[in-house]
Amino acid sequence: MTVLVDAAALAARLAQGGVLLVDCRKDLADPLAGRAAYEAGHLSGALHAELDTDLSDLGKQGLGRHPLPDAEAFAAVLARWGWTPDVEVVAYDAAGGAMAAARLWWMLRLVGARHVRVLDGGIAAWQRAGLPLETAPAATPSPSRVDVAWDTHQLVDASQLREGLADGSLCVLDARAAPRYRGEVEPLDTKAGHVPGARNRPFQDNLREDGTFRPSDSLREAFLSVIGTHAPGAVVHMCGSGVTACHNLLAMEHAGLHGSRLYAPSWSGWIADPSRPVALGSERGTPA
User: Fold this and answer.
1) CA atoms within 13 A on the CB side of 18
2) pLDDT (tens digit per residue) in 196-241
3) Which residues are catalytic?
4) Which range marks the domain in which residue 124 is found?
5) Could you tell me if 242 and 31 are in contact, meaning their C-beta atoms sit under 8 angstroms apart?
6) 173 CB burial (10 A radius; 0-12, 13-18, 19+)
7) Residue 94 is part of a domain; what is its CATH number?
8) What 3-state class would DSSP assign to 158?
């Protein structure tokens, strides 16, 4: 199954039934904005996923601003949605997949789900296609029984990250905008800069002006120019809190570069330990 679906194809697929639609819209500046946007208009039948509660566990300390929840907690969310492994899931948002549809896509992949895609271009592409929204809340699904576990092989911790950068076995891509990566500004976290050795690949570079993903061959060429001789499986993604990094992981899969991984705590988790080093400016392999 492809990782993206366009609006027209999704509309046709929805007419057949059997799709779990999830609205993942989120605004980091306003915790209530995502839910408000959902209530103002969403794809028919879509449920709403809240990044801070459904896709994160903010009670965990030292693991970044959006810590990965325990698998049991995510299983409870999936059960509430009526999810089963054979159900096709389509996630969407209003940020080209970055906030936070790609995060849900990745979390489902992390528990072994393969029938999951992201709406290319999100709700804006749906509306441009002249397709309707509704304001009525989705019907409450019948709860399912869900037992899942994280595939830890798709995750990298801080020690692995540091060792892999030191011996050159890993290529770390930071998805934040270049000024944040270089440490020139830092609007969200307590310290500016990046992990020494990490290269910058802003997630925004994955998208065209209309918010849809660039063609797969174009993305493949762009990522290969950054990762150099590293295999896709040696690539580790990070960002500020482990959310927009999933957009780069999704883009690599779309480009046919399979098997990259995530450092989920990302920059906000890295700096939780003051003994960890911080770099400023640009790194080799990253445009200045």
Assistant:
1) 8
2) 999 999 999 999 999 999 999 999 999 999 999 999 999 999 999 9
3) 239
4) 4-128
5) no
6) buried
7) 3.40.250.10
8) helix
